[in-house]
């Protein structure tokens, strides 16, 4: 058994999340975490809402509310959406907790005291109309290196190079289109050059192990070639105060703040479970493994900025140093980055109406239909396009006609002919072959999931579904009406009951809602895929200004009821009733209806 940290990218709380977001961080991390628990590993899956920075202030100003009010509202909305999708977090929290503030400040102080935070004078981008600092990502212009339009003030997606806002040609504010002013100001910079050698050694070790996706490791190594100090503070009044600069109108920047959330969430989880040191098993034990899930636009934060912060905290750069009270902290085992999901051939852009919010999607369609599409056709290793035509096709032909039809046929035949799982007689070669093939699928599917090849894993399960449907067509149990064939009918239906149970267990990390429904059809309790829940809690460290408790929702859950990965023999005599359909077939009219909604935006 290994201890596995599933570190899931923190959704930003300036608004609801769309399906492109959960295709990158949500569904892939949940499939992996659910499987690893079933495979016997001790999994800690953590994340939360990222709630600091100028975009929150801008959105709050537009609505005439405070930044905290906006963060509170969007935090709850995101929590509700992710629970409905079935994401099995051990703790989903937020960056505005007292616990997070304390952990971030502790990290900062140690990195600074070890010599890896240096004060430099820099030119900061200011909005002329508001006087407020513009975040790097809210400034766009022409890339000075490759000439691409739409390069951001922190990175050009076209060539992958890191940038500063002052590097851009013809910079403009994404908020209102105005040209930013650049003023001189002092900030703390993370001295990445002093950590570059250690980062290079770490990345080379990751490459030698050969388990990172090629696009991720190569991109990460390439950005080391032009490494330079990066500002970790900003001129803003919404965020975590900077140790030593508490009285200045400056705060820690999201590049330092948000990524520390993986650690602070682990610590909050431990404190809430009653064993406040339990988090150390995932962070201080060098045998523990950590997997970070995100979209490709966040690679730089997780393969350079966060590892550099950890190395600086550990005192492992050229200036040496000693770790603080948190002890020697583990660097990521793997950065699992997905590519981009587009919509009907266009990049998701909420401001232009090119968007499908998770909440809207789940109000009209089954969560497992979305999870299936993301897993089967999502942006695992290359950009992928969500189209309504393909969503309807996959739902109807694969979920409904393939897997759902097999479940319904088997359940209906057992209910009609025996009312319970029958006892088999003599197995024939055709029975044994199917049972052996499906049983072997556990090893193959499990290996693919553990190596983050979820598309291939799901394709293998669907291949086995096809084999089971062929078996039904070949043995034709629906024609075994003569009493003399009762024994053979019992054997075939027992074989199919076992196969459906096996396949359902394999599907459960991908399709947890329907896995529980299928388990009930087979006479189970419907708990093979434990589901997350929302719990209302109070902040462990701080209260509201008036002294009242500061409450917020978290996602948590008890996932211990998930069965072990592998075959579990079905029990003869288990009552089986005529099943209802598990998946909803979609009318073709859905395509035009949704495209009309899209055009209306």
| Major sheet description | 5 strands, parallel
* Rg over alpha carbons: 26 Å
- Unreliable runs, pLDDT <50, ≥5 residues? none
Helix content: 40-55%
Overall body shape = elongated
Strands in their spatial order, largest beta sheet: 3-2-1-12-13
Averaged pLDDT, please?
94
By DSSP, the count of extended strands is 18
Tell me what you see in this structure.
This protein is α/β, with parallel strands linked by helices. The chain is built from 18 helices and 18 strands. The strands form six sheets. It has a five-stranded parallel beta sheet, with helices on both faces. A three-stranded antiparallel beta sheet has the order 4-8-9. The chain is elongated. It starts with a strand and ends with a helix. The relative contact order is 0.14.
Question: SSE layout and pairings?
Answer:
Blueprint: E1 3-8, H1 19-38, E2 42-49, H2 54-63, H3 67-85, E3 91-94, H4 98-113, E4 117-126, E5 139-142, E6 151-152, E7 169-173, E8 181-190, H5 196-209, H6 214-222, E9 230-231, E10 233-234, E11 251-252, H7 254-257, H8 261-273, H9 280-283, E12 289-295, H10 299-314, E13 334-338, E14 341-343, E15 346-347, H11 358-364, H12 367-377, E16 384-386, H13 388-417, H14 429-450, H15 454-475, H16 486-507, H17 512-521, E17 533-543, E18 549-556, H18 589-600
Parallel strand pairs: 1-2, 1-12, 2-3, 12-13, 14-16
Antiparallel strand pairs: 4-8, 5-6, 5-7, 8-9, 10-11, 14-15, 17-18
């Amino acid at each position: 058994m290994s201890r596995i940290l599933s570190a899931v990218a923190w959704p930003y709380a300036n608004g609801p999340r769309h399906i492109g977001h959960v295709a990158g961080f949500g569904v892939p991390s949940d499939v992996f975490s659910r499987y690893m628990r079933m495979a016997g590993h001790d999994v800690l899956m953590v994340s939360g809402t990222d709630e600091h920075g100028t975009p929150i202030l801008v959105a709050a100003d537009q609505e005439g509310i405070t930044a905290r009010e906006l963060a509170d509202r969007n935090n709850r909305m995101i929590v509700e959406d992710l629970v409905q999708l079935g994401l099995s977090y051990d703790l989903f929290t937020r960056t505005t907790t007292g616990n997070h503030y304390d952990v971030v400040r502790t990290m900062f102080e140690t990195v600074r005291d070890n010599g890896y935070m240096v004060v430099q004078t820099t030119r900061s981008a200011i909005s002329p109309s508001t006087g407020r600092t513009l975040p790097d990502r809210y400034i766009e212009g022409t890339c000075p290196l490759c000439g691409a339009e739409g390069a951001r003030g922190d990175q050009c997606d076209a060539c992958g190079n890191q940038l500063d806002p002052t590097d851009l040609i013809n910079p403009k504010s994404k908020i209102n289109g105005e040209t930013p002013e650049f003023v001189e100001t002092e900030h703390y910079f993370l001295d990445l050059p002093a950590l570059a050698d250690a980062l290079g050694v770490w990345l080379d070790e990751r490459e030698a192990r050969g388990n990172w996706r090629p696009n991720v490791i190569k991109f990460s190594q390439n950005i080391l070639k032009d490494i330079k100090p990066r500002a970790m503070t900003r001129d803003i009044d919404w965020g975590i105060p900077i140790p030593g600069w508490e009285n200045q109108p400056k705060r820690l920047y999201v590049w330092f703040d948000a990524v520390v959330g993986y650690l602070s969430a682990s610590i909050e989880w431990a404190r809430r479970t009653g064993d406040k040191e339990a988090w150390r098993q995932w962070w201080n034990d060098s045998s523990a493994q950590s997997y970070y899930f995100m979209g490709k636009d966040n690679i730089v934060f997780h393969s350079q900025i966060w590892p550099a912060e950890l190395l600086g905290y550990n005192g492992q750069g050229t200036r040496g140093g000693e770790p603080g009270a948190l002890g020697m902290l583990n660097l990521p085992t793997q950065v699992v980055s997905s590519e981009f999901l587009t919509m009907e051939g266009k990049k998701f852009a909420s401001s232009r109406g090119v968007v499908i919010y998770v909440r809207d999607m789940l109000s009209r369609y089954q969560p497992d239909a979305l999870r299936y599409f993301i897993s089967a056709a999502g942006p695992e290793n290359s950009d992928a396009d969500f189209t309504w035509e393909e969503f309807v096709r996959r739902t109807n032909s694969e979920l409904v006609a393939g897997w759902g039809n097999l479940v319904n046929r088997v359940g209906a035949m057992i209910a009609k002919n025996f009312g319970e799982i029958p006892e088999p007689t003599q197995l024939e070669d055709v029975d044994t072959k199917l049972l052996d093939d499906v049983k072997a699928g556990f090893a193959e599917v499990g290996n693919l999931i553990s190596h983050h090849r979820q598309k291939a894993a799901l394709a293998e399960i669907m291949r086995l579904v096809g084999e089971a449907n062929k078996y039904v067509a070949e043995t034709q149990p629906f024609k075994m009406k003569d009493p003399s064939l009762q024994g053979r009918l019992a054997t075939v239906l027992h074989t199919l009951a076992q196969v459906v149970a096996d396949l359902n267990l394999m599907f459960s990390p991908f399709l947890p809602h329907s896995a529980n429904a299928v388990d009930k059809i087979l006479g189970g309790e419907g708990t093979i895929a434990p589901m997350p829940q929302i719990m209302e809690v109070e902040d462990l460290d701080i209260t509201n200004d008036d002294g009242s408790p500061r409450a917020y929702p978290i996602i948590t859950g008890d996932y211990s009821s998930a069965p072990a990965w592998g075959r579990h023999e079905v029990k003869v005599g288990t009552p089986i009733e005529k099943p209802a359909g598990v998946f909803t077939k979609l009318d073709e009219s859905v395509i035009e209806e949704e495209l009309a909604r899209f055009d209306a935006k």
